[in-house]
Each structure stands twice: as structure tokens, then as C-alpha cells.
UniProtKB/TrEMBL annotation:
InterPro entries named among the record's database cross-references: TBL, TBL_C, TBL_N
Keywords: Membrane, Signal-anchor, Transmembrane, Transmembrane helix
Tagged with keyword 4Fe-4S: no
Principal cellular location given in the protein's record: membrane
Similarity comment text for this entry: Belongs to the PC-esterase family. TBL subfamily.
Molecular function GO terms recorded: O-acetyltransferase activity
TM annotation in the entry: 23-40
Localization per record: Membrane
Membrane topology of the entry: Single-pass membrane protein
Identification of the protein by name: Trichome birefringence-like N-terminal domain-containing protein
Lineage of origin: Eukaryota, Viridiplantae, Streptophyta, Embryophyta, Tracheophyta
């Protein structure tokens, strides 16, 4: 673990390169100002941009500073292997502890995400902890959101362990978690709310994995709303629960249903409920008086069932990532992804008026390429008797650790924007 932070300090120290870069940027700004000045004050048409003589490497450096898209790239081999193991981190839950339950292959832990235009920085736990000193972070969503939180706990475990204080807040400590890092006064919470909006069982046969539920699309789920106001960072997500049979309500009236087979009810697509759930969640955050946090949308996390559906013997036994030629973002996954990103963009615009920030953790396409990252039959569910194969959650360590590399990088860029 040490080697990661040492590497980072040796190679990426912010002080090593900053001066030449600063001088260069100032020079560049002066050149640009001169050009703009010339353009404004000359009767000639403005110079086409490509005629400005800036060498391509210099140009790439500016791009790197300004707008490298860290979410576009590819998985590359990483012989160094993962940040942690199930022995260096003792917080891996059985559901995600694939090595403990006999997963035979290890290659799935030996890939890193490489953005096309830049490097995704190595996760530096000390840097993360300093950034969040005295602050709090909540993961709002389903068990895949909690999966990201578990990854973060392990990424930080090389520096320090938190105290489990869940019992102080809830009796349902399997679903609602709180961890406190005393030495950094940092709190992490998982607020379980798989639909983000209020839901209740509607099936006459009781609750099961595919039973009918009522969804109140205009009412945010109190389970997270009553807790979230004081958090500084909120990572919000939702996904697979929207595939089940659902009756949609607005203003307490049934407006239709999804996959429900009720004769006289209007069939609405699953995207409708998904869109409204995010719209309601974002609107609720905007309207909370004391909420000053930064909200991140972590986008839809695809599952990879092959040889059958999730409830019909499907599994996920691949041991290597797909290339982007082998697997494209399209179909219902694309639709889910676009739906939620549209709602985020709208929230971002409206949030600005209140000084609230919304950000994107764009994980859909990168995870689409990782059919090898799921527990399959090498995880043990909370529900001991459930023999289903898990191609939804992600092994720890594994590709989900990348989400927290994105998270830290995005938080750092946000700090930088604040300073400038
Ligand atoms: C860690 O994984 C190994 C296999 O790599 C397994 O034998 C062991 O039981 C696991 N330990 C824990 C604490 O999960
Ligand atoms: C559907 O039909 C049943 C039986 O006729 C009725 O009780 C129910 O209110 C109807 N539901 C809707 C949404 O119209
Ligand atoms: C699992 O199955 C056994 C035997 O069928 C039963 O006694 C037990 O209560 C079940 N456990 C759960 C968590 O459902």
C-alpha cells in the first residue's frame, strides 16, 4: 500500500512542475489577449484559430489542465495489482469478498482505467483524508452504492480504520451504515434507498426479489431525506430496482405501471419512473434549507448476466474485460444512462441559482467493459439461502475501486475551481 502514496509524492508533487507551467500559462494568456486585441481592432476578419502558432504538445498540456475527460479511455493491464487485499483490508463484506469464497482467477484485479487524454491519478488515501477533514459523505442509493462505500473504506484502510457508529443512528445496521474516522473527524454513511423515492410492497404474495411494488414518484424517500441535510458530499445512484414490476403514483394517484400485467392500467416505460425518481431526488436536495453539499450522480452500473436472465440461471464467468469494440453502450443501458444524466444537467442548472453544485461520476461505459468484475458465485449474500448468482455487485478489490479514483479526482478539481 505504501508504494502508492510514495509514488504519488515522488512523481506528481504539485510543486515540482507548477512554476514553469504557471509562467507558460501567463505567457499564453498574454499572447491570447494580444490576438483578441488585434482581432477586435483590425478591420480584417478574425484570424482562424488554427493559425495561432502553438505547438501541439503545448496545446495538449492546456487540454490536460482544462478538460481531460477522465471517463473516456480504456482498461490497461496493471501488473502492480490492486490497492489492497482481503488481508490488508478487513472490512470487505462476504458478499463482495470473492477471494475468500474461492474465486480462482486474479487477473480481474490487475487492470487500471486509462483515460485517452491524460492519466487518472493513483488514489492517495492521505490526500483524500486531508480533503475531507471535518466533513461528511453520504452514499444514497441501493446496495451498489454501498459497494462503492465499502471500496472507499478499503482504499483508506492503509492509513486508518473508522469506528462503526451505525447503531447510534438506526436499528437496521445491515442497510444503514455510519463510519467515523476520529483522527480526521470524517463521517461516511450509506443511506439505503433503492428507489430514492417512497416505495411500498403491493404484491399479495408479499415481498420477493421480483414482487410488485408501489412507487410514489413525487415523494423523496424520508429514509435519506431526514438524514442528508448536514452532509458535505452526497453520492447518489439508483439502478436495478427499477426493472421490477412497479405501480407509479403521482399526487397519490395511480398514473400507470411498469411490467405489472394489471389489465386496466396504463403501461409506462421503466425509464419514466427512473427519470422522475432522479428529478424528485435532485429537487428535494435543492429545496432543503440547510443543505450545502456537493451532489454527485454516480451513473447506472450495468450487470452482466450471460447464458440466462438473473432469475433463470444466468451467470458471469468471464475473466477479462471487454474492449470497446466488443461491447458498446446502447439499448436500455444507454437509455437509463441518458435519462439520469439529463436530469443531472437540469439539476445542475437550477442548483446554480442557489449556489449548489452537482457533479458527474460517469461509470456506466467503463463498467460495461468489466463483465469479469462481479462475484458471480463467489460471494455470499446477506440472505444465506439465496443461491442466486451475483452479476450486479462488484468484487473487492476490483474495478469498482476506480469509482473512488474518479471521486477523489473530481473532488480535487472542484476545490481547484473554487480557488480560481
Ligand atoms: C482472503 O483470500 C484468501 C484467498 O486468496 C482466502 O483463503 C482467505 O480466507 C481470505 N481471507 C479473508 C479474511 O477474507
Ligand atoms: C381497474 O379495475 C378494477 C376492477 O374493475 C378497479 O377496482 C380499479 O380501480 C381499476 N383501476 C384503475 C387504475 O382504473
Ligand atoms: C435457510 O434455510 C434453513 C433451512 O431450510 C432455515 O432453517 C433458515 O431459517 C433459512 N435462513 C434464512 C435466512 O432464510
Amino acid at each position: 500500500m505504501k508504494s502508492y502514496s510514495t509514488d504519488l509524492n515522488a512523481n506528481n508533487s504539485p510543486h515540482t512542475h507548477s512554476n514553469p507551467r504557471k509562467v507558460f500559462l501567463i505567457a499564453l494568456i498574454l499572447i491570447l489577449l494580444t490576438i483578441i486585441h488585434l482581432c477586435i481592432h483590425s478591420s480584417n476578419p478574425p484570424l482562424p484559430f488554427k493559425k495561432i502558432r502553438i505547438s501541439s504538445t503545448v496545446y495538449r498540456n492546456i487540454e490536460f489542465e482544462k478538460k481531460c475527460d477522465i471517463f473516456t479511455g480504456k482498461w490497461v493491464p496493471n501488473p502492480k495489482g490492486p490497492y489492497y487485499t482481503n488481508t490488508s483490508c478487513n472490512l470487505i463484506i462476504d458478499q463482495q469478498n470473492c477471494m475468500k469464497f474461492g474465486r480462482p482467477d486474479t487477473e480481474f484485479m490487475k487492470w487500471r482505467w486509462k483515460p485517452d487524454e491524460c492519466e487518472l491519478p493513483i488514489f492517495n488515501p492521505l490526500q483524500f483524508l486531508e480533503l475531507v477533514r471535518g466533513k461528511s459523505m453520504a452514499f444514497v442509493g441501493d446496495s451498489v452504492g454501498r459497494n462503492q462505500m465499502q471500496s472507499l473504506l478499503c482504499l483508506l484502510a492503509s492509513v486508518t480504520y473508522p469506528e462503526d457508529i451505525s447503531y447510534k443512528y438506526t436499528s437496521n445496521t445491515d442497510y444503514f451504515k455510519r463510519w467515523f474516522y476520529a483522527d480526521y473527524e470524517f463521517t461516511i454513511a450509506a443511506l439505503w434507498s433503492p428507489f430514492l423515492v417512497e416505495a411500498s410492497d403491493a404484491d399479495t404474495n408479499g415481498h420477493s426479489l421480483n414482487s410488485l411494488m408501489n412507487l410514489y414518484l413525487d415523494k423523496a424517500d424520508e429514509a435519506w431525506v431526514r438524514e442528508v441535510e448536514s452532509f458535505d458530499y452526497v453520492i447518489i445512484s439508483a439502478g436495478h430496482w427499477f426493472f421490477r414490476p412497479l405501480i407509479y403514483y403521482e399526487k397519490n394517484q395511480v398514473i400507470g405501471c411498469h411490467n405489472c400485467n394489471i389489465q386496466n392500467m396504463t403501461a409506462l416505460p421503466k425509464y419514466y419512473g427512473y427519470r422522475m425518481a432522479f428529478r424528485t431526488a435532485f429537487r428535494t436536495l435543492r429545496r432543503l434549507k440547510k443543505y450545502k453539499g456537493i451532489t454527485f450522480l454516480r451513473t447506472f452500473s450495468p450487470s452482466h448476466f450471460e447464458n440466462g436472465d438473473w432469475n433463470k440461471g444466468g451467470n458471469c464467468v468471464r475473466t477479462r474485460p471487454f474492449t470497446s469494440q466488443e461491447m458498446k453502450l446502447d439499448g436500455y443501458i444507454m437509455e437509463f444512462y441518458l435519462t439520469q444524466v439529463e436530469e443531472l444537467k437540469a439539476a445542475e442548472k437550477q442548483g446554480k441559482r442557489k449556489g449548489l453544485k452537482f457533479g458527474l461520476l460517469d461509470t456506466t461505459e467503463i463498467m460495461l467493459l468489466r463483465p469479469d468484475g462481479h462475484p458471480s458465485n463467489y460471494g455470499h449474500s446477506l440472505h444465506q439461502n439465496m443461491t442466486l448468482t451475483d452479476c450486479v455487485h462488484w468484487c473487492l478489490p476490483g474495478p469498482i475501486d476506480t469509482w473512488n479514483e474518479f471521486l477523489l479526482d473530481t473532488m480535487l478539481k472542484n476545490e481547484k475551481d473554487d480557488v480560481n
